[in-house]
Design a protein that fits this description.
The longest helix is centred in the last third of the chain and has 27 residues. A four-stranded mixed beta sheet has the order 6-9-5-10. The protein has a three-stranded antiparallel beta sheet with strand order 3-12-4. It is built from 19 helices and 15 strands. The two termini are about 20 Å apart. It is an alpha/beta fold. Helix 18 packs antiparallel against helix 19.
């Protein structure tokens, strides 16, 4: 996702100047010619090389220093001195801009969508295409469309930062269904009306049996950049709204222009709010608040990813041992539509600084080629055997005492920087083997009901989108919010649509469709 803070980049002229400064300081003899051919023989592995890496951090932060066992393992295996610098994800591009201005870009870093597009034409990144023949794992790991997205024809300026195409499933408290004499929804018959009936029972009929009116049917989260509510995706799909954009007669159409679909969706939510079926505090929800409501045993229907479902069940079972969320299919809307939100994978890239010597390029590619093998993935996500975990003669893996303390931070390079395309990349060696099968089945079910966004790869070509999309979405969704809580009639969404179009939306439509015609 593009954060608003990422949209303020230094002018291209400053970046070009920084690149020239870095080139000058590196020394012309230390940099491979842009026209030269890759040379694997440039690195025999004998010289110890310093490699710098800028990694984003999120909740919990990065490792405190470069003495972490995972980094020490990589240092020894590849004869390198890996310097990982952690910076908050929300300010990642700002950090890159400062480093570029001082001629100190790291060897390895992430190119988020708009940064990747702007900098690739300024000679900042290594073109990896000529190198792939010597690194078969990197060449074959990611689907071709994922490798090519945002790259000009014939060039590969970055490897995809992989994530699952589908993340979250709608989930329901199965024990509450049992308590109220309701059955788990039949996939083929699960409509939005059935969704509403179950949610209303959860909100009104004391499903936890505590004699208090303190349960919530379903909830929504904050406003998204693409004009919607976090957690509302399956309902949006059911009522025919696009997942950002949809293709109609060869053109991309944004969801903000879908008047009739918005009215049907907002009428549904407004009625749910009026009757107390929709969380009365949804307007102030954050992701963490929704997780807390589910884990504390007060929320009946929500959407979560596989890992979070297991964690939420453990939290809820500490309060009620029978508590159990189970995944269900998305509901079917009035036009027989349904969908699970798919995300674009590949528009965030792992890039190599073009100012590296040919020797260092080869060493870094050896590292990355190994990183996504099974052996490499195990080290990157689980750290080092004998320190963080132990393996018994029968193959059973258990965490050490240190591993137990640091388990949440062990896979942060895997989660936040680079990883393989295996759906097992979030499964650890000490996890129950059944988890792998359950996760694969979870992903398979999500993929049965695709609700994808054909416009996602092209919005970053729209400067108006980059600059204005977040503010336009906030204004649009303010009207939607007012309609849901009864302050405005549903017809007012037409005014919000008109304002969105007049305030930059029509320009976004043109710019995105121009890019679609050029690059699809």
């Amino acid at each position: 996702m593009l954060g608003k803070k990422r949209w303020a980049l230094l002018p291209g002229i400053l970046l070009m100047a920084a690149a020239l400064t870095a080139c000058s300081s590196a020394g012309a003899g230390n940099v491979a010619s842009e026209e030269g051919s890759p040379n694997p023989a440039a690195d025999d592995g004998k010289a110890k090389l310093e490699i710098t890496l800028l990694a984003p951090t999120f909740k919990g932060g990065g490792w405190p220093d470069n003495n972490h066992p995972t980094i020490q393992y990589l240092d020894k295996k590849f004869n390198i001195d890996l310097k990982v610098q952690w910076t908050p994800g929300s300010g990642y591009d700002e950090k890159l801009n400062v480093m570029a201005a001082s001629g100190e870009l790291p060897d390895l870093f992430i190119g988020y969508e708009d940064t990747f597009l702007k900098w690739q034409s300024q000679g900042v990144f290594v073109d990896l295409a000529p190198y792939l023949k010597d690194y078969p794992k990197l060449a074959s790991e990611f689907p071709e469309d994922m490798m090519n997205i945002l790259n000009p024809p014939g060039k590969i300026y970055g490897f995809p930062k992989y994530s699952e195409p589908y993340q979250a499933s709608l989930i329901v408290r199965e024990d509450w269904l049992n308590n109220l004499g309701l059955t788990k929804p039949d996939t083929s018959k699960f409509t939005v009306d059935e969704f509403y009936r179950i949610a209303k029972a959860f909100a009104k009929d004391d499903p936890d049996g505590d004699g208090k009116a303190d349960t919530i049917g379903f909830t929504l989260g904050g406003v998204t950049k693409d004009t919607g509510f976090d957690g509302g995706e399956t309902l949006e799909a059911a009522f025919g709204l696009a997942n950002g954009w949809k293709e109609v007669d060869g053109k991309l159409v944004p969801k903000q222009t879908q008047s009739e679909e918005w009215k049907a969706y907002l009428n549904f939510l407004a009625n749910a709010y009026k009757e107390g079926v929709l969380d009365q505090d949804f307007a102030t929800n954050t992701g963490d608040i929704i997780k807390e409501k589910a884990g504390s045993g007060k929320l009946g229907i929500t959407a979560q990813n596989f890992t979070l479902i297991n964690r939420t069940n453990k939290q809820a079972q500490a309060i009620d041992p029978k508590a159990h969320f189970v995944p269900i299919a998305p509901p079917i809307g009035p036009l027989s539509l349904r969908g699970n939100a798919g995300q674009t994978v590949g528009d965030t890239k792992i890039v190599l600084n073009a100012e590296m010597s040919e020797q260092k390029r080869q060493r870094v590619l050896k590292l990355l080629n190994w990183w996504i093998t099974e052996e490499g993935s195990n080290v990157i996500k689980d750290s080092v055997e004998g320190i963080m975990y132990e393996k018994s003669p029968d193959g059973k893996v258990t965490l050490t005492e240190r591993g137990k303390k640091e388990v949440d931070s062990l896979p942060i390079l895997n989660n936040w920087f680079f990883r393989s395309s295996s759906l097992k990349h979030d499964i650890h060696q000490w996890d129950d083997p059944k988890l792998t099968d359950q996760f694969m089945a979870f992903q398979s079910e999500l993929a049965k009901y695709p609700w994808t966004n054909p416009g996602a790869p092209y919005v970053v070509y729209s400067q108006t989108y980059i600059k204005e999309a977040a503010d336009l979405s906030t204004k649009f969704m303010a009207t939607a919010m007012n309609i849901i809580v009864g302050r405005e009639p549903v017809e007012d969404i037409d005014g919000a649509i008109a304002e969105w179009r007049a305030s930059g939306g029509d320009t976004i439509i043109k710019e995105v469709n121009d890019a679609y015609a050029k690059y699809k």
